[in-house]
Amino acid sequence: MIAFVEGILEYLDIDLAVIDVGGVGYEVHICASTCDRLPGIGNKAKLFTYLNVKEDEMSLYGFITRDEIAMFKRLISVSGIGPKGALLILSVFSTDDLRFAILAGDVKTISKAPGIGKKTAERMVLELKDKFSNEEITSSANSANISSTASGLGDNAAKDEAVEALVALGYNSTDALKAVRKVLIDNPQSSTEEILKQSLKFI
């Protein structure tokens, strides 16, 4: 397997990069967010890669971080989502936003990705929701300025009620969950009313 490629960026398009590694040019399929973060042509670049093998084709898919390639591998494990579809999803969502959407069961938000209908989004939530490690959930929470303590409050009834209330007000469940978790950083024992009032400041 090719774990990563590192060399000089020779060509760059929104969905493709060519990296010169010791005189050999590797075509690597990328998503739009990866394209935006790569250096200019002629500069050194490194992409973590996944080699997709078919009967008549081998294709490399590349990502800036290990977290992104890990999410990519999870996405293509879902029935109905291939490598190209997974790239489209990661062009729309950051790994943290997608992780939050899956954990929140936010089918509506996930369905906004190109080529992802409601049924595929529901399948994604069903198949991936329980596959994130505690470290990944904590990392995702920390990147959104949420402590690991707040991210572990899955059984907090007041939190769940506050999320449901925000959704009823018209906010999507992903944004609602993020806002509620931010409130619980400093006040983990807040009542539903207190959480709801403070959460509205973060949306």
Strand content: 15-25%
Largest sheet: 5 strands, mixed, barrel
Low-confidence stretches: 144-155
Number of strands: 5
Our count of helices gives 11
Give helix % range. Answer: 40-55%
- CATH architecture group name of the largest domain: Orthogonal Bundle
Polypeptide structure, described:
The chain is α+β, with helices and mostly antiparallel strands. The chain has three domains: 4-64, OB fold (Dihydrolipoamide Acetyltransferase, E2P), CATH 2.40.50; 66-132, Orthogonal Bundle (DNA polymerase, domain 1), CATH 1.10.150.20; 145-203, Ubiquitin-associated (UBA) domain (Helicase, Ruva Protein, domain 3, Orthogonal Bundle). The chain has eleven helices and five strands. It has helices spanning 32-37, 66-76, 83-92, 95-103, 107-110, 118-128, 134-143, 148-151, 157-168, 173-186, 192-199, and strands spanning 4-13, 16-21, 24-29, 44-53, 58-63. It has a five-stranded mixed β-barrel with strand order 1-2-3-5-4. Strand 4 and strand 5 (58-63) form a beta hairpin. The N and C termini lie far apart (43 Å). Residues 144-155 have low confidence and may be disordered.
Jot down its keywords.
single chain, 203 residues, alpha+beta, OB fold (Dihydrolipoamide Acetyltransferase, E2P), DNA polymerase, domain 1, Helicase, Ruva Protein, domain 3, 3 domains, five-stranded mixed beta barrel
